[in-house]
Amino acid sequence: MNPITNIKNQNRMNERELNLGYSGDLKKSWHQTYKDSAWVYIGGLSYALSEGDVIAVFSQYGEVMNINLIRDKDTGKSKGFAFLCYKDQRSTVLAVDNFNGITLHKRMIRVDHVEEYKVPKYKEDADDETKRLWEEGCAPKPIMREAEPMEVQERRIKKAKEVLLDIGDVDEELLKKIKKDKKKAKKEKRREKKREKKLKKLEKKAARDPDGDWKNKAKLIDNVVAEDDLYGENKHFDFGKKKEVEEVKHNPRPDFEKADWRDIEIWKVIREREKAEKAARGETTEAWGTEDHYVSKRYQGR
C-alpha cells in the first residue's frame, strides 16, 4: 500500500477515536495492540539525516534508548527509514500520534508502531561505532557519584556555621530600601540587555541589506543616537512621536486623486445624508452659501 495512504488511514483512525471519546483510554485505543513494544518505525526520512538528527527530533516525547538507521552495505548511505526505541512505551503513542504525516526536511514521514522488532544480525565488517550502538544503545549512561563520609560532611557544616557570624539588630527600613535598590538595578540590567539585543538585530539587518527598509534604519538611529543630539530641540523633527490630533468636526472633502474608491463612496453617502437633513429642516441643500460678487469701492456709491 502507498505510504501516504497508510498515513491518511492512521490519521482517520485517530479522528474516529476522538469522535467516539476513546482518546486517552489505552484499553479501548488501537495503540493497545502494541503495548509490549517500545519500538517505532520511521519511514520517508531524508537521506541527509543522520542518527543524531532523528534522535534530536524524536526525543521531544521521551528518552531514546536505541536507534537503527538502515544504511547501504557498500556505500553506507541512509536508505530513508529507521527503527527507534523509547525508554517508556507510552512515548511511542505520543510519537505515532504527533509525528505521523509531518514534513521533516522537506519530506513527509510515516511513523508507526512495531509489534515485533527483529534485532539485526551481528556483522564482523561493521565499524566500531555501529557495533557499540548495537550493543549499548544510544541512551546516556547514569553518572555514579560516591557520597563523602559522614565525618567529612559534619566538618564542612561546622566551617560554614563559623563563617556565618551573627550580624545583630538591623534597621528594617534600611533592609527594605536595599531590597528596592536591588530590584531597580535588576530591572535596569534587563532593560539594557533587551536594548543591546535589539541593537544587534538591527545592526545585522543593516549589514545584510544596506539599502533596506527605512524603518529599520530609523529605529537603529533612534536607539544609538539621542534625539536631542541629532535634531536639537526643533519640534519639526519629532519623527515617530505620538501627537494628540484634534478631531475634525466638519466633513472634509477627500482628495480624489489620492483617496481610495471606498473613501469616495463613503463621502458621497455622507453628503447625501447631510442634504436630506437640511431639506427636512427647510434649509438650502447647496454646499456653499449664496454667492456674493465682488464690487470695487469706486462703483459701490453709484
UniProtKB/TrEMBL annotation:
<feature type="domain" description="RRM">
    <location>
        <begin position="38"/>
        <end position="116"/>
    </location>
</feature>
<dbReference type="InterPro" id="IPR000504">
    <property type="entry name" value="RRM_dom"/>
</dbReference>
<feature type="region of interest" description="Disordered">
    <location>
        <begin position="181"/>
        <end position="215"/>
    </location>
</feature>
<dbReference type="InterPro" id="IPR051847">
    <property type="entry name" value="RNA_proc/Spliceosome_comp"/>
</dbReference>
<feature type="compositionally biased region" description="Basic residues">
    <location>
        <begin position="181"/>
        <end position="203"/>
    </location>
</feature>
<dbReference type="GO" id="GO:0005686">
    <property type="term" value="C:U2 snRNP"/>
</dbReference>
<dbReference type="Pfam" id="PF00076">
    <property type="entry name" value="RRM_1"/>
</dbReference>
<feature type="compositionally biased region" description="Basic and acidic residues">
    <location>
        <begin position="278"/>
        <end position="295"/>
    </location>
</feature>
<dbReference type="InterPro" id="IPR035979">
    <property type="entry name" value="RBD_domain_sf"/>
</dbReference>
<protein>
    <recommendedName>
        <fullName>RRM domain-containing protein</fullName>
    </recommendedName>
</protein>
<feature type="compositionally biased region" description="Basic and acidic residues">
    <location>
        <begin position="204"/>
        <end position="215"/>
    </location>
</feature>
<dbReference type="GO" id="GO:0071011">
    <property type="term" value="C:precatalytic spliceosome"/>
</dbReference>
<dbReference type="GO" id="GO:0000398">
    <property type="term" value="P:mRNA splicing, via spliceosome"/>
</dbReference>
<dbReference type="InterPro" id="IPR045844">
    <property type="entry name" value="RRM_Ist3-like"/>
</dbReference>
<dbReference type="GO" id="GO:0003723">
    <property type="term" value="F:RNA binding"/>
</dbReference>
<keyword id="KW-0694">RNA-binding</keyword>
<feature type="region of interest" description="Disordered">
    <location>
        <begin position="278"/>
        <end position="302"/>
    </location>
</feature>
<dbReference type="InterPro" id="IPR012677">
    <property type="entry name" value="Nucleotide-bd_a/b_plait_sf"/>
</dbReference>
<dbReference type="GO" id="GO:0071013">
    <property type="term" value="C:catalytic step 2 spliceosome"/>
</dbReference>
